[in-house]
Backbone:
């Protein structure tokens, strides 16, 4: 069912990437910023999809990975590492952190795993804000500014974020088609049975968890270079850690294109509500979440549009007969 | 003497913590829902108490029953209209839904009540015994917290509703076959959870300033206490709350107050891995 949509989906995705990349040529800085945010959240949503969508573990650690990525990237740059190198260092550190953490907390299931993964965000935030000698504590950290005019900086960040998004997408595609993805889905359906038929569930889960962290680390480091200043409450936010899974749910968990569709849709809605209802934007996001849970439980891409159409035509012909 | 003082501070704080966590624990245990609304409900209770005291001059102890009724109704309606529809879904769905509801409630509170820290100042003075000093309002808070927790325990053990809740927790299908209306019990349970949150808020407003910025902190406390004490039982929440209070008090003294919360979270993660059922947790209920 899903496979039939894919050629069309790939064409759309290529067009979408092209559309993102050409925004600096025609639009002002505001639009470019939105494009950056969309690419950034697409990359994080694609990452979360590995553990949350494929393996089906309710991970709420995204903000921890993002935040550690921010701080490692910033610290590496402050220690005079070249920018790209510091992004790579952040990616590797976050991946190593996730692998080590995953080996420990992936033994938990369901509610306990959810609570444990949220606790990781709180814990990393608390450690970051109290370890002031390294992280600057609550005062935050300044990151060396990118050279160039604001427009040039935005365009550059947009290209980098889009590349990260494309990388995350390609990895998702490869995993989707490989043994690994098959193993992930098996664990989702029945972990004990997957274990029984010879899938090394622990290793698969740790891999999925690491994949879900990897790009968040890169995105975090790039974000730190982009904004030039980071602090613990901003980077390790519970809101971020819930927002990313909500985006994936909006698009369709466990699908190839769902995370991108969800992230773009969510950022778009958020931007509209930010602009028009500054005071109420949080409540409106809450309403979106409630609406999503009740009316789109499987996401936009899992709606059977053909059946919806058929139903409609069915009633029309029925009406015509009578 | 110092150590005794620290211990007592921890004990008083711990009973308040127990009051925070007991409703959260009940909802988690019976409904299998991680209630992200809990922190906001506590603050709502605290704000209602403050406004009743500030504008109408009602003593917090008198306003407590009203806060309890309001919060119970709110919780009942939320569960009946919204959460019951997805109560059997996986944790990702239910947690996200309660988080969405929390965002709405939080936003309403910040817009209408603003995030100014507010506190009911009763000026009851302090009592001291052999160099140990304790403000009377804190002692009063502790007594109220213990009374409320004990009342919940008695209701769960002795009343028909309480037994029905326990039955639903043990096996909701069997409970339904015995003629218990499971959906109603779910709503009542969530209502009681909200009621306990509101009552905890009332007590907190008497002792510390409350502000909407604290919702996350209170929710975090509830997580930690539930994991330390074990899920879904009143004694578990009490033990977990008092343990956390004393641990925070001592680690604040030894490592500095900024590390007290970190120690709680580290402990929680360790316990999750070693003994997820908590210190006094067991499968049944009461």
Residues:
């Amino acid at each position: 069912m899903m496979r039939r949509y894919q050629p069309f989906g790939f064409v759309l995705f290529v067009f979408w990437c092209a559309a993102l990349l050409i925004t600096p040529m025609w639009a002002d800085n505001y639009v470019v910023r939105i494009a950056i945010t969309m690419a950034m959240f697409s990359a994080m949503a694609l990452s979360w999809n590995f553990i949350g969508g494929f393996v089906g573990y309710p991970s709420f650690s995204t903000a921890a990975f993002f935040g550690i990525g921010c701080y490692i990237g910033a610290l590496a740059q402050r220690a005079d590492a070249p920018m790209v190198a510091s992004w790579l260092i952040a990616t590797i550190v976050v991946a190593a952190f996730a692998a080590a953490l995953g080996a420990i907390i992936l033994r938990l299931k369901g509610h306990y795993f959810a609570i444990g993964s949220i606790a990781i965000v709180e814990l990393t935030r608390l450690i970051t804000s109290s370890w002031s000698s390294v992280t600057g504590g609550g005062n935050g950290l300044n990151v060396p500014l990118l050279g160039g005019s604001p427009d040039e900086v935005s365009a550059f960040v947009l290209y980098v974020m889009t590349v990260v998004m494309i990388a995350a997408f390609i990895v998702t595609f490869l995993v989707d088609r490989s043994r690994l993805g098959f193993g992930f889905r098996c664990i989702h359906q029945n972990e004990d049975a997957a274990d029984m038929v010879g899938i090394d569930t622990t290793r698969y889960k740790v891999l999925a968890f690491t994949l879900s962290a990897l790009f968040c680390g890169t995105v975090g480091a790039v974000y730190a270079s982009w904004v030039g200043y980071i602090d613990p409450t901003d980077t390790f936010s519970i809101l971020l850690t819930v927002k990313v899974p909500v985006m994936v749910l909006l698009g369709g968990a466990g699908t190839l294109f769902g995370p991108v569709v969800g992230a773009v849709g969510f950022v778009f809605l958020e931007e509209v509500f930010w602009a028009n209802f500054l005071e109420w934007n949080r409540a409106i996001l809450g309403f979106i979440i409630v609406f999503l849970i009740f009316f789109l439980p499987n996401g936009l891409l899992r709606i059977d549009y053909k059946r919806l159409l058929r139903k409609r035509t069915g009633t029309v012909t029925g009406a015509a007969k009578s | 003497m110092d150590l005794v003082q620290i211990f007592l501070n921890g004990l008083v704080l711990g009973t308040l913590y127990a009051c925070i966590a007991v409703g959260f624990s009940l909802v988690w245990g019976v409904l299998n829902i991680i209630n992200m609304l809990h922190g906001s409900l506590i603050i709502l209770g605290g704000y209602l108490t403050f406004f009743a005291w500030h504008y109408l001059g009602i003593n917090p102890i008198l306003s407590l029953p009203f806060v309890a009724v309001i919060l119970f109704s709110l919780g009942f309606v939320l569960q009946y209209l919204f959460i019951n529809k997805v109560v059997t879904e996986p944790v990702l769905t239910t947690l996200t839904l309660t988080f969405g509801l929390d965002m709405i409630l939080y936003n309403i509170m910040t817009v209408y009540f603003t995030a100014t820290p507010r506190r009911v100042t009763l000026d009851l003075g302090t009592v001291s015994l052999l160099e140990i000093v304790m403000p009377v309002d804190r002692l009063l808070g502790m007594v109220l917290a213990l009374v409320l927790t004990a009342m919940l325990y008695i209701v769960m053990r002795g009343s028909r509703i309480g037994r029905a809740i326990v039955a639903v927790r043990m096996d909701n299908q069997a409970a339904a076959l015995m003629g218990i209306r499971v959906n109603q019990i779910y709503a009542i349970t969530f209502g009681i959870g909200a009621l306990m949150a509101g009552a905890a808020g009332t007590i907190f407003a008497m002792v510390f300033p409350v502000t909407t910025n604290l919702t996350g902190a209170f929710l975090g406390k509830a997580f930690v206490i539930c994991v330390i004490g074990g899920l879904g039982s009143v004694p578990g929440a009490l033990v977990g709350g008092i343990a956390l209070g004393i641990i925070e008090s001592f680690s604040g003294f030894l490592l500095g107050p900024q590390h007290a919360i970190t120690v709680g979270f580290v402990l929680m993660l360790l316990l999750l891995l070693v003994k997820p059922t908590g210190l006094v947790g067991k499968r049944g209920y009461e």
Q: What stands out?
A: Chain A has one domain: 2-321. The domain at 2-321 of chain A is CATH 1.10.3470 (ABC transporter involved in vitamin B12 uptake, BtuC). The interface with chain B takes residues 52, 56, 58, 60, 104-105, 107-108, 110-112, 114-116, 118-120, 122-123, 126-127, 129-130, 238, 242, 245-246, 249, 279-283, 285-290, 292-294, 297 of chain A (CB under 8 Å). The two ends of chain A are 34 Å apart (CA to CA).
